[in-house]
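Hey, I was hoping to borrow your eyes for a little while. No rush at all, and the record is pasted right below.
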Amino acid sequence: MSDGKTKGGTTASRAGALQSSVNILLHTHYAIRLWEGRKRDAPDETGVKKKRPEIISMPQAIARAGNASRDSAADNPYADMALVRLEEALQRATLKINENVSSLDSILSAVPKGVTLSEVESADPLNVSVFSRSPLGYRCVWLLVGYDQLAMKAFQAFHYGLISRSQRDAILDNGGHAVRQVYGVIQPYRTLAVTRRDIAEKTTQGLVAIERNGEPDPDVLSGKKRSSFSPPLKNTIAEEE
């Protein structure tokens, strides 16, 4: 059918939107707690309620990343700044967790000859369906899955006497801190209806945005500095200069 006709003789229509689904398995309580987040007045391990800093959930982080991506497509420079900071934070956190996973892999492989350790996993992992409107939202999820793998390897290495309890706890704390730092970058993001032109021309919306969020990074405002996952710039002053 090289002429673009269907079998019935009519012109072939365009293909529908591509679709895919993502499910992840979380095996450790450490990763599950980070997925769920923590309310400001949530009880601690002893059941006592204490005023502690809120930790947003992974679904909230994904939603904020999606909002920033949507606003970036509308030429919002503050959204672009949020995406740049999020991508940079993800790169740092992913590198840290991958380095720790590699270190634990080396430790776990250094067992006497003739000893074989199976892969560790939960007997009843949490199965979660994931959807994000932003590639960086998925990058957040991959980071958490990496931390889950790190936690499993840390517990396995401790169980078999390959690392100490203090080493295990330090690995878990450092990895969890890396994930929380990424949350902290995207947590403050809120949609504000403003464009680059509003900032340049000091419109009412632009002045309100500057008062709330400060002046945007000049390189971000010009479009020179953007996340590798930001939508392309369209009809902006950055393109006209």
